[in-house]
Specification:
The chain is an alpha/beta fold. It folds into two domains: 120 residues, Urease, subunit C, domain 1, CATH 2.30.40; 298 residues, TIM Barrel, CATH 3.20.20.140. Helices cover 36% and strands 23% of the residues. The strands form four sheets. Strands 2, 3, 4, 6, 7, 18, 19 and 20 form an eight-stranded mixed sheet that branches. It has an eight-stranded parallel sheet with strand order 8-9-10-11-12-13-14-17. The chain has a two-stranded parallel ribbon with strand order 1-5. Helix 7 packs parallel to helix 8, helix 8 runs parallel beside helix 9 and helix 9 runs parallel beside helix 10. The chain is globular and about 75 Å long. It binds zinc ion. The site of zinc ion has 5 residues, from loops.
Length: 429
Amino acid sequence: MRQTADFILVHAHELVTCKGPASGTAGAEVLNQLETIADGAVAVVGGNIVAVGSSEQVLAQWESRQCIDARGRLVSPGLVDPHSHLLFSGNRYAEYESRVTGQAPVGIEGGIHFSVSRTRSASDAELVEQARTDLDVMLAHGTTTLEAKTGYGLDAQAELRLLRLTAGLQHAIEIVPTFLALHVPPPPQEKSRGDFIAEMLAALPEAAVYAEYCDVTADPIGFTVDECLSVGARARELGMGIRVHADQTGDGGGALVACQLQAAGADHLDYTSEAGFRSMAEAGTVATLLPSVTYHMCEMTPRIHKGSLGAADKPFMPLLARRAVDAGGVVALSTDYNPGTSPTPSMQAVMQLAARLFRLSYAEIWHMCTLNAAASLNRGHDRGSIEVGKRADLLLWKVATHGMAINRFGYNMVDRVWVEGRAAATVPA
Ligand SMILES: [Zn+2]
């Protein structure tokens, strides 16, 4: 007697499970082992996965009125994006052209303070409307869980407003709100660093009501180790988890801050040392790499200055990515979606860039965009892989294999999305 499922995805050309421990998959050898099932099937009841295996195995135990034929297609877990700045206003495309061409911008406002002034003057309704539009795109491209941080308020009240709006968003994507207390220092004519930090410390009790995490930026253009530790320690006392923008423009002690605060995640890490990665691995901090930033900022190609080619802005990032993996800790990937340095909402684009720019293997990339990203949000126990008992966050792809989803690029290859078993998006062909 077979049991009845709400629905079964059957006869997938390939089903990739991304299976691993709830704390994430670590170490080069294990990361390169990716479980795939030919002619795969997955059965769902009440939003959870109840069976996974070959179609023959699953159909021997389960039946359903809704058997969805995945012939010729890839089935995977939903993608998890562990770093985004979802709420902002004002586009930055104009200043970007000057970076690409090397021409000095004329009459163009830009930079983070431009985003801040536009965001501050936008209405709640405008910010929410734009966020919803972005979330729809993310979902259609396969993101089913998203970390969303503030950061374009840059004073306590403006950051708290963004946080309340983020926490109030209703969408098929599950949103994990983060209060970015320390993003960049305010302009000195506006406020001293000491006043700014005091203001953020005072805002933390209210932030703790709405946010799961508090984020601090330990970077030469951000805040010092001591400033990050003072805010982070208070956030921990209030029960918040910690995330760190670490070492993006130089070694700013980001790894040290992450370890001392037992951060769930430290992101960017472009200048983090081998010892830094090793100590993060020991502390259980997930290292999150952001290839779409490297790509968008043209950091691995020579900069154009006054018509001639200069040097690249960044070290060779494949070596950095290898350093992160070889340190033995959990490594994840993310969009860092934001208007200035990474205006892509698509985790598919990140997967494709991670291969091309960071020279990661297909298997590594799949683990890093699913279970490992979920682990960095403390959600590795209930999502990030196709395993019995986990949430049915599932993707049906237009392509047949996990490798094709990375080898091809530049268009949306996700066909259908389920979040907790509910059909969430049908993407027009
Ligand atoms: Zn960021």
